[in-house]
Amino acid sequence: MGNTGELSPYEAQDAAGFVASMQRLKVRSGLTYRELEERAALSGDVLARSTLADVLQRSSLPRPEVVAAFVRACGQGHRVGDWLDARTRIASRIAAGTVTSSGSEDGAESPPDAAEAVGVRSRPTAFRTTGFVAAVMVPLFALIAWGLLLDNPDTPGKRVVPATGWVTIRPSRTPDLCLTDGRDRAGAYANAVAVQLPCVQATVPRTYLEPAGEDLYRIQWHHPQEGKGCLTVMSTGPVKGMLEPRNDCVHATLFHLVTAGTRNAGEYLIRPGNSSRCIGIVDEDTAEGAEAVEERCTGGAGQRFLVREG
């Protein structure tokens, strides 16, 4: 890795300058976007390379969790506090109106700062009747909070548009494992089912996330010998509830992807479109070869997945 010492985030005076400091840190690290994504995953962080590339091309203030994951991935974990402190100072200036922000982009955060700005700018207003102030400001803040809830991609249960096309689907707790084809560990079924295996070994089949309308998706597997199959929840047989790749994609299971509502951005629940249940790793097992299965939704760690471009 390159030399990442001596670079201070406190040199930045506004959002654009802060992003420029992040750009310099990336250059000094000598790491590619893919390498930064992989290093973040090893630390338990989510830092999609597409999101990071977008953040570093914008002049908006990135979200705190993006900044922290990025700094750790660059090998500066001991300085995360400094970067977050510098970011907070700039956010305060934006809220106070002393500096400007270019708005919100992927991985950027300006709506919360905008809410703070309303509070800052309302204080100098000299209303003599406090009851009138409360009557005006309470509905205003309620509207702001509601708007932020609707715009927040991590609102629990909100259906969002994840990365589509070629992707990897990884259990959130074990991001070095990917859903791929394998066999049920009981040996009860001769065909392939979806299991979790190390991503470095799971190069085939490739996973393709295909939009199917109405916030639904097909999860396709493309195998060089077997061709294309679509994951289907088994309704009968010895592996009932597990996912099998079927050649009949027309009648394959369609899935909703909804935000998990956790502190980790980018975590999804995968829910079959024809049921109220969720896909999870059986018994929340973290072992290689553990099967994916349809089960009652609990929001537990074994039911949260990362969908990444791949």
TrEMBL record:
InterPro entries: Ricin_B-like_lectins (IPR035992). Gene3D superfamilies: 2.80.10.50. Signal peptide: none annotated. Keywords: Membrane, Transmembrane, Transmembrane helix. It comes from the Bacteria. The keyword RNA-binding does not apply. Residues 98-120 are annotated as: Disordered. The chain crosses the membrane at residues 131-149. This is XRE family transcriptional regulator.
